[in-house]
Amino acid sequence: MNATKPLRLGLIGAGRMGSFHGRTAALHVPGACLAAIADPTPGQAARLAQELEVAKVYSDPQQLLDDPDIDGVLIGAPSALHCELVVGAARAGKGIFCEKPMSWSMEEIDRAIAAAKAAGVILQCGFNRRFAKSFRAAHEAVAAGRIGTPQSLRSLTRDPAFGNPAGFRKWGIFLETLIHDFDTLNYLNPGARATEVHVMADALIAPRYKDRGLLDTAVVSIRYDNGAIAVAEASFQAVYGYDVRAEVFGSAGMLSMGSIAQSDLLSYGSDGIRADTQRMDTDLLRDAYIAELNHFAHCLRSGETPRATGEDARAALAIACTCIESVEQGKAIQL
Amino acid sequence: MNATKPLRLGLIGAGRMGSFHGRTAALHVPGACLAAIADPTPGQAARLAQELEVAKVYSDPQQLLDDPDIDGVLIGAPSALHCELVVGAARAGKGIFCEKPMSWSMEEIDRAIAAAKAAGVILQCGFNRRFAKSFRAAHEAVAAGRIGTPQSLRSLTRDPAFGNPAGFRKWGIFLETLIHDFDTLNYLNPGARATEVHVMADALIAPRYKDRGLLDTAVVSIRYDNGAIAVAEASFQAVYGYDVRAEVFGSAGMLSMGSIAQSDLLSYGSDGIRADTQRMDTDLLRDAYIAELNHFAHCLRSGETPRATGEDARAALAIACTCIESVEQGKAIQL
Amino acid sequence: MNATKPLRLGLIGAGRMGSFHGRTAALHVPGACLAAIADPTPGQAARLAQELEVAKVYSDPQQLLDDPDIDGVLIGAPSALHCELVVGAARAGKGIFCEKPMSWSMEEIDRAIAAAKAAGVILQCGFNRRFAKSFRAAHEAVAAGRIGTPQSLRSLTRDPAFGNPAGFRKWGIFLETLIHDFDTLNYLNPGARATEVHVMADALIAPRYKDRGLLDTAVVSIRYDNGAIAVAEASFQAVYGYDVRAEVFGSAGMLSMGSIAQSDLLSYGSDGIRADTQRMDTDLLRDAYIAELNHFAHCLRSGETPRATGEDARAALAIACTCIESVEQGKAIQL
Amino acid sequence: MNATKPLRLGLIGAGRMGSFHGRTAALHVPGACLAAIADPTPGQAARLAQELEVAKVYSDPQQLLDDPDIDGVLIGAPSALHCELVVGAARAGKGIFCEKPMSWSMEEIDRAIAAAKAAGVILQCGFNRRFAKSFRAAHEAVAAGRIGTPQSLRSLTRDPAFGNPAGFRKWGIFLETLIHDFDTLNYLNPGARATEVHVMADALIAPRYKDRGLLDTAVVSIRYDNGAIAVAEASFQAVYGYDVRAEVFGSAGMLSMGSIAQSDLLSYGSDGIRADTQRMDTDLLRDAYIAELNHFAHCLRSGETPRATGEDARAALAIACTCIESVEQGKAIQL
Fold first, then answer.
1. CATH number of A7-121
2. Of B317, B318, B310, nearest to B116 (Cα)?
3. What CATH code is assigned to B132-285+316-334?
4. Which of D273, D274, D276 would you mutate first to test chain B, the one with the most B CBs within 10 A?
5. Which subunits sit against A, judged by 3+ Cβ pairs under 8 A?
6. d(Cα A273, Cα A279) in Å, to the nearest integer?
7. ipTM score assigned to the predicted complex
8. Residue D269's beta-bridge partner residues?
């Protein structure tokens, strides 16, 4: 690939997150362009293509994978299709960015990782927090030993609003939401491996869906092989906005990160001091989303291993799957 | 008791915390005076009595309890003696402030509570955070419904330094340290009752004491009967100071509290922005310690029920005892 | 004076601030008691004396000054009477705490300082910020050279509400309000002397009183003999509470101090993040008010020079008087 | 101009700021490309052109202005050339983004504004703070009346390091540095006009250049026609980084903005709590620099008036020129 020739990226899946990634790729990744969009939903790919002046539109993702013009693909399709698309993209020799979760099953993710490995293509997972400035700096500080040995960690995700409880997917809180926190904890405890998981979870926001299996609030305790004990928390509805924070405490110090304030503006009025909050993941983590696609482009060009790999996705998924077991068996489970 | 006659308080136990309470009572509780000090350690009571100009010194706490001049007692003796002293003080008809933990055993604490009840004396437990400004305001906001129904909570205590690991008491992390957090969680989830407890704990700071039963790092998950899921965390050694924080998240908002900064001074230098931290519980929570003894004096005069009762101590102890079971059985335990 | 005999303090002036100091002296100064109150307003001294169980009540301050039982006096009378009372107290051989401003005139304050000196009594001025934890730590850091040579400073005072504009005193913004900031700037620039003053001021809150001489908003620039340039700002009405902050910038760093948040409690709701603010000087600076009277008691006992002297009051007054000249002449004035 | 055809921007001046703008234009302005670079310094334009893969390189800015392919120019040349280049660009019919200050002289800037007007081209000045998120939100809050009528304001700029004092330009602190603050104050006090200016300034960082006219520290008081009194402060050397903050206080509230922390990461260690700071304007205000060039591109396409106009540059310059008079005459000057 020539440095002067723009990277040609193809987007698979033009829903909310797919479109967001498409816009990011088209507008905020210097040296890359969005060259094709594939989505089977009638009109969806075309609409985005028009907005972003993308020439090629496909209704079948395989067409995009077959397009020899495409250097790398961004997989933003529904989670259930991720692994199949990763395997297909790997076979087509494309570099792969796959939105999290890469898979809901360990077998499947192993197949995906193996396919990428066999094809020699890069495989990056959409763990955005690894690209947030403070989370990355914290990781590097921990890796450099600046807080000694990690002893306790915390990561939390609170979504701003639980749109349609009826449409929930069973186990989504672990596989779709906390997967971020599991990866964050792994990232902030570099080199360590989760060995035990215990879950307390419930349907507190939409209790009438509880008997159908909804869990919308969860606290997960995780023990690591370096002794560290971590907590991952999630809620599907925080009225104050999108809340993503973490903390890592070690033998020589502590790091905290994450802020939901919109900016450094403070308003002082008769009701006290106020700061506006971020309401959307794509606002709160905008810079991280941009950084992760730039990183993908960088890895595509350089062949460097991405900062969030298939193995990272697998490690987080392993925790998520163990959470399900913990809930089903009502006890702590060894990984 | 006449409003114009100062309350006469007697201190039992003149070690570190006992002396601190004695100084607070003598110097920072308007309308009260420290009238007697009892401590069996030779010289200990006398030294403090001289410092604070207290006339009466006893080597046997029973002498102090028998002193008809004393209106109320501050129990700052070693934890193991707390309950016996509470029972004795109740029989002597004295109002009682007892440092936490009130007891290490459920039977004993029931006996203490019953004794105070039978004697009609007030019984206050030294849960200092109930008297910290932000914790109290948070409790009141929750009680007033301002964050809706609590759904998830967190409370943590990190001691600044693990002086002498060899001198640890088994289960101390639950019975001496996390007892504060269990009470804080109860306080921030008013009216709710803990129903299930799970512990992950380890000896990470002083691992060589692990096989003798040391636990110096712990994460406790607690389920409440209103659905809320709480986490209590403790560490015996935080190099950055004494760290006490809490958070309560509900259906209509979230409250966070606790700061280890010494003051609102910020220093900007070539190494960035810095704030000094508090290194001692008695510095971090100084105002709370003063407030709790003033509250005790107020309750002594007015007969009002203290803000931290024997029943509160019992509820926290019940969680601590269940933690021990959880560690011993390696599983979650129902209360 | 015997360490075991409580210091006997007498309060002159039982209005808002006088009463506040009286309560502080009676309740929060270990080793001292409030022994007498004098106030010519019928009933005012008696009411406070009853509240605080003070035995002696005088309608004429001279009676209190003549009382041989009194070790030190707290002057909380109207500003116009301060100097006369200081002189009287000095002649009576009493140690003196005088609320700021000590005087509105340079001649008068010189007379007061000379009287105290001649009598060999201590004279402390009520510059509360010198006793606020962060301001004091900042002063010490500057004095220790930790920010190098001060180059620019800022101090501001914003009162919460301009009760009755009709009752304003001409030049009050300099003599009553900014006097605090002038002293703060001197305190944060230790050893330096103000050499030039320029004022911009106006009646913005109550403009209809402007032609009667009201100034309710002011910005004062001050040049010091060590080169530092300072700004003092004041407003008589901040809807968000009582606002007192300062900043000192030097060749090797910067210090900022002052926070109007009530506590470390943060509330997160659908309208963002919120913190409650302090609304009263006596709330915002409560600990500083307590510390300054304890310091006064300490100096009375030890003979130590107070941390806020008559000379400090004079230095701040000199700036305030120069401000008046600057407004009257519409230009910068050399001190 | 067709929406699908990228805007073609030309950069004049490839020094530090020019290159930064060139990179921003080339990499972070979707829908635009950097098509040409002109710089008379041998090799300077070529080096940047190679880095950014820009095809056209000119040694004479006029060649770039004559290039019919260029839609808009970014003027990053030395300040002394700004106005001449604005006039030339206007005559050539190019849209113009001119780095601040647009000029050092009122006559010249009037000529520049008139030229742009006559040519009907847009003219945007590089006042980056108007594009910083918090400053913009503050402006909008003030304009919407949310803090009532502005009564007092503050804006400050502290550069991180005074590289080579010998190379200073006389009056640079007003014309190059504080020009930002003058514009910020105008921006936060929308619709108001400065009427009076007073300066206190000195050479405190490099005092040996003082007699050659250096001023490296300044405090400027500004009175506005709506009564508001503002302070602008500058220093050429803050050891802790690049410091840009502002505050606007009004009859109904206060807004504060600006933070020098690098991110939301906090580090807790044995020396307290720490946050890293930004050291470069291009780091601290990176998002604002990107936003201002995107805004320029937007205005070029839409014909919309930029958020920072030639008139805004003129208003700030008028204050800066009055500052010089104030220093020269040693008094406050009416505008």
1. 3.40.50.720
2. B310
3. 3.30.360.10
4. D273
5. B, C, D
6. 19
7. 0.95
8. D272
